[in-house]
Amino acid sequence: MVPTCCCFLQPIIKFYSCCQGIRTSISPPYSTILSNNVNYFPGEVSTQEDCSYQSVLDYLNLTRINEMFTATRPVTDWTHPTVVNLDVYLYVILAVIEKSQTFVPFVWVTMEWNNELISWNPEQFCGISKVSVPREMLWHPDLTIMECTEDTDKIFQKPYIQFTHRGSVSIEDGLRVISTCNMDVYKFPFDTQSCVITFLSMIYTDSEIQLLPASNSSWLTRGSQKYLQTQGEWDFLNISVAKGKVSFNGQRWDSLKYTITIKRRPMLIVMHFLLPLLFFLILDLSSFLISDTGGEKLGFKVTVLLAISVLLLILNDILPATAGRTPLIANYCIVTFACLLLSLLEAILVKHLIERDATAEDPPEGSHCKPEAENGNECSACSCMEDAAVVCERGRGSGGLRDSVSDAQLLQLASRKLQVLRRSCLTRMAGRGQPRLPYWEGVARRINTVYFCLYLLAVCSFLLFLVLEWTA
C-alpha cells in the first residue's frame, strides 16, 4: 500500500521541484521591476497604484522613438476615419491691404481628435486623467489654409500636446495668417468686407480625415469679440463657419470655411479726403461771386483744380487697380474734378466775351469825345464824366492832342473811365431809368447765371446719389 502511494506522489514532487528551480533562476533586474510595480509589457497593470506621469507613459509604451504613435493615423483599423474638431477665434486684425487684396489676421486655432491607441484607467494611476507630452511624440493632422499667400508664421506654437485617458488629443496654435481676400471696395470707405479662411488636410481625403466645427458661428463670434485685442480701422462683426468639400482629380477632401466679416471705420477717410473735396466744391461755387472783369477768378479756380489733383494721387495709392466696379469715391473725385474743369472753362468763356465787348467799344484812336448833332457840343457825351472833361478841354484848346508824355497818360486814364461809366452816360443820353449793358457782356452774364444754376443742381443731385448709395 505504501509503495503505491509513493508512485502516485512522485510526479507531483518533480513538478514542484521544477517550479522552485524556475523561481530561483529569475534575474535581479526583472525582480527589481516587479518589486517597483513597473510593467515590462504594455497593457499589464500592477496591483498597487503609481502616481507618476511616467508610469502612464510606460504603460502606453509612449516614447519618442515609438513610430506607432507618430508615423501613421492613430487608428486600430485603417477604415476608421479620424474625426478632427476644429475651432478658430479671431484675436487681432493686423492689416487689411486693399491695394494687394491681402488680409492679415492673428487667430487662435484649436484642434481635437481621438487617438485609438491611447487608453488607461485613471483609478489605477492615482486619478491621472490627462497627460502632456512634447508635440513630436504624437501624430497630429496636417491641416493647411488654402488662402495663404506666404508661409504661416506660428508665433505662439505650444511645445506640448495634451491627451486624456479616453484618447482625446487636443492642441492649440496661434497663427499669423497672410491670406488673400476678394474685396469689394465699391462703397469705400463705408464698405464691409468678408474674408475667408479655409482649412483642409493636404494628403488625407474625406474617407481618412473628417473635419467638423467644434462650435457654432454664434459661439465663435462671442468668443472672438471677448478676446479681440486690436482692430485698427476695422470693426469686427462676426465669424461664420461652413463645412464643405474640395474635389481634385477624382478625390475629395473635407474642408471648413471660416468667413470673417469686418466693417471699416470711415471717420479717418471722411475727415482727410471726403470733406476737403466737398470744401473745394463749395469754394468753386462761391467763386461765382468774384467779378469776371479781372483775372482773380481764373487764378482762384486753377488753384482749386490743382489741389484736387493732389487728392486724386492720394486716392490712387489706396484703391486696388483691379476693382470689379468703379468705387463711389473714385466717381466722387472724377465728377468733382470735371465740375471744376467745366467751371474753369466757363469762366474763360465769360472773360473772353467781356473782353470782346470792351474791345468793340473802345473809342477811335486820337478821338475820345464824340460830337453829338443834337446839341452841337463835341463833348456832350462826356458831360457826365469829370475825368474825361479834362481831356475834352485840352482837345479844344489846342485843336488836337499835344505830343507830350503827360497827355498820353491822361488819355489812357480817360479811356478806362469811359469803359466803366459808359452805361451811365448812355442812360442819361437816352433818358432811360436803367443802365443798358453792352451786347456781349449781357450774353456773358446770362451764360454765367444759367451755368451756376445747372452747376448747383448737378452738384446737389450727385451728392444725394452718393449718400443714398453709401448708406444703402
Salient structural properties:
472 residues, alpha+beta, 8-stranded mixed beta sheet, 4-stranded antiparallel beta sheet, 22% strand
Percent of residues in helices: 40-55%
Please compute the radius of gyration using only Cα atoms: 48 Å
In the predicted model, the low-confidence regions spanning at least 5 consecutive residues are 1-9, 15-47, 363-388, 398-405
Topology order in helix (H) and strand (E) letters: HHHEEEEEEEEEEHEEHHHHHH
What class do helices, strands and sheet pairing give? Answer: alpha+beta
Number of beta strands = 12
Distance between the amino and carboxyl termini: 116 Å
Number of helices, counting only DSSP H or I runs of 4 residues or more: 10
- Beta fraction: 15-25%
Kindly state the mean pLDDT as a whole number?
A: 79
Task: Provide a short characterization of the protein structure.
With 472 residues, the chain is α+β, with helices and mostly antiparallel strands.
Structure, described:
- The protein is an alpha+beta fold and 472 residues long.
- The chain has ten helices and twelve strands.
- It has helices spanning 2-24, 28-35, 53-60, 217-227, 267-286, 296-316, 328-360, 386-398, 405-430, 439-471, and strands at 82-97, 102-114, 130-134, 143-145, 153-157, 160-164, 168-176, 179-180, 192-201, 209-213, 234-248, 251-264.
- Strands 1, 2, 3, 5, 6, 7, 8 and 10 form an eight-stranded mixed β-sheet that branches. A four-stranded antiparallel β-sheet has the order 4-9-12-11.
- A hairpin with a 3-residue loop joins strand 6 and strand 7 (168-176).
- Helix 6 runs antiparallel to helix 7 (328-360).
- 19% of the residues are buried.
- Mean pLDDT is 79; it is low at 1-9, 15-47, 363-388 and 398-405.
